[in-house]
Amino acid sequence: MRRKLRRLFLWCVTMLGLTGVIVLTTSKGNHHDRRGGTNTNGHLLRQRDSINHNVGQASHVLDKSKPFVAPVEFPAVVIEKTSSHFRTKHLQNNRIESPDLDATDQSNQQDHLPIGLPQSLPKTNMRKLGQVRNISKFEENQKRYSSQRRRKIDSNQVDLETSTNSNISQKLQTKGHDSVAHPSGKTNISTGQSSNQTVHRKQLPLKLEDIFIGVKTTTRYHQSRLNVLYKTWFQQAKRETYFFTDGEDPEWQNKTGNHMVNTGCQPDHHRQSLCCKFAAMFVKYMESRKRWFCQLDDDNYLNLPNLLRLLDTYPSEKDLYLGRSSLNHPIETMDRENDMKTVRFWFATGGAGFCLSKALAYKMLPYAGGGMFQSMCNRIRLPDDVTVGFIVEKLLDTKLTSIRRFNSHLQSLKVFRQNDLKEQITLSYGINSQRDNVVTVPDAIFSKKDDPTRLLSLHCYLFPYARICRRR
């Protein structure tokens, strides 16, 4: 009898100890362990191990003859209570495995409600787990819908860009745009450019202030040639135009608003002098950081509205070389830095004028900046305009886009009809004792004696309300 009472007493003491441990676990489960730096879940694991150890010791006290079956160990389940839903976390190997835990959930870990070590969850908790599963399915469906919506939007943008490019091509065709082809005959009429270029929409419309215009001249032509330019198109682009000469001229420096640049080059028309002036012009353009660089000679008439409309159809961020060749075949020369090999390429003649985009000009810096352009001229022993074609086509692999509306004195200028004169970008003249090569202007208000170049009459024909035209 005493033995049975003793066993009953020890059993009661053991059960009371287990109950106290469980209560201690539920009351202190939310506190952080300062010594180990672990979270609530690690504290629960250590309490679970201590319970198993105490139960094992009690079994030996109760009855050493009968083997004691320890309780089945289950991973602790923690229900995290958030503002919107509940999530489950399984404690395994002393860590929380919750791949969908974000930074907000980690900051709210103090709100964990420990349940202990139950063999099965109550029905209310199972209902909450069902809510979690439904919420996770909703989130997956929402992510799937958003990804499908994003792909649909991207496809619509591609279709919009394609339709926009096709509309631009149709407008270029219907407006009778230049047949801008490479001189070799490779034409891409649909885009209005050479075969290696594509038309894109520009973010900003081109303005006259985005164009740098450089004119090569010499001191002996200041009164004769520059005077014609000064009275005509220069009045429309005073801030954008610079004259590159070979001597000081205070009178013209004052008339042009300090836009006369004395290059210090030789006052002749030799190759070295032309290359010297273009090198100074290129440096001045790079300082301006404008979107287009256009070079002219002092015997060119420039139709600024037509030039602006032309350049506005091309993106300056692409490599573009616009002009007109004076030959009907590529020029051939020897490359003296490449074992005297023969090279063939197209070039835009400087007598008709040509334009370079900003992107292409920046790529020319290693060959045309810092005094390198004159060495490039000596490399092929040809003038500046031919050297530009050599750099662009042979070294930078960019083809010339031929614009038929650039004209020089090397062409027959008398063949232009009345309507054709309004469409040209540049025109020129040639005066000699045998035959004058000038344009025929209808209803010219200046006589041939007062206007031998016919550029004054041409300007009044195009702009009848100009200052020089109102006096007639």
TrEMBL record:
Chief location: membrane
Location comes to: Endomembrane system; Membrane
Topology term for the membrane: Single-pass membrane protein; Single-pass type II membrane protein
Q: What InterPro entries does this protein map onto?
A: Fringe-like_glycosylTrfase (IPR003378)
Looking up Gene3D superfamilies in the UniProt record yields:
3.90.550.50
User: Where does the record place the Fringe-like glycosyltransferase domain?
Assistant: 206-454
**Ranges of biased composition (kind: Polar residues):** 155-173, 185-198
Q: Where is this region: Disordered?
A: 89-125, 139-200
One GO MF annotation is: glycosyltransferase activity
Highest taxon listed in the record's lineage: Eukaryota
Q: Name one Pfam family in it.
A: Fringe
Query: Among its keywords, does the record have Transferase?
Result: yes
* Keywords annotated in UniProt: Glycosyltransferase, Membrane, Signal-anchor, Transferase, Transmembrane, Transmembrane helix
Its GO CC terms? endomembrane system; membrane
Q: Which family does it belong to?
A: Belongs to the glycosyltransferase 31 family.
What PANTHER family does the annotation carry?
FRINGE-RELATED
Q: What is this protein called?
A: Fringe glycosyltransferase
